[in-house]
Design brief:
Length: 178
């Protein structure tokens, strides 16, 4: 070996794995961890069931989901049928489209119930009401069922479809939140 190679070999760092690797543990902790995880998930399941029972008792006459009170909406050409009143809070708006056209759903808070129209005189001026818009679903195909999750404070809201001509055709409905 040349003098240069001998020097290079002596500069090599010591073997890292011998110095830094921990000795193998005697036993695995895995069974213990699994047992702990199982008991935690069982507790979580019991808590979830208890919460569902409590919420069911709390608002027995009303329909509710685990994510909020349910407002059923049915859209068709050209009308919207829906629950008229609901309690304030987290709300699940479930929208079924009976068709035959696609329909969207927009929720706007309005104290008067009247919404400003665009220059066409047919569609609601969404720019003018954007600060009062609390949620919207894009157009859904006939037969579709979709959900919109919103948090509603007390007041008067309008549910509408603003596709060309649909609002003036009758696709609006007032929802009162108390
Ligand atoms: Cu529509």
């Amino acid at each position: 070996m040349s003098a240069y190679r001998q020097q290079a070999a002596s500069r090599r760092p010591p073997r890292l794995n011998r110095l830094f690797l921990k000795p193998r543990s005697r036993t695995s902790d895995l069974p213990l961890v699994k047992r702990f995880a199982n008991s935690v998930s069982r507790l979580g399941f019991v808590a979830a069931i208890a919460a569902i029972c409590l919420s069911a008792v709390g608002c027995a006459p009303r329909q509710s989901t685990t994510r909020g009170e349910l407002v059923r909406v049915t859209e068709g050409d050209f009308r919207i049928a829906a629950t008229r009143r609901v309690a304030a809070g987290d709300i699940v708006i479930r929208v079924k489209n009976r068709g035959p056209d696609a329909h969207e759903l927009i929720v706007v808070k309005t104290e008067t119930g009247r919404l400003p129209l665009r220059g066409d005189g047919l569609t609601v001026d969404e720019d003018a009401v954007q600060h009062d818009e609390v949620g919207a679903l894009e157009p859904g195909s006939p037969g579709s069922v979709r959900e919109l999750h919103v948090r509603l404070t007390p007041g008067r809201y309008v549910l509408l479809c603003n596709m060309s001509g649909h609002y003036m055709g009758g696709m609006h409905r007032t929802l009162v939140v108390r």
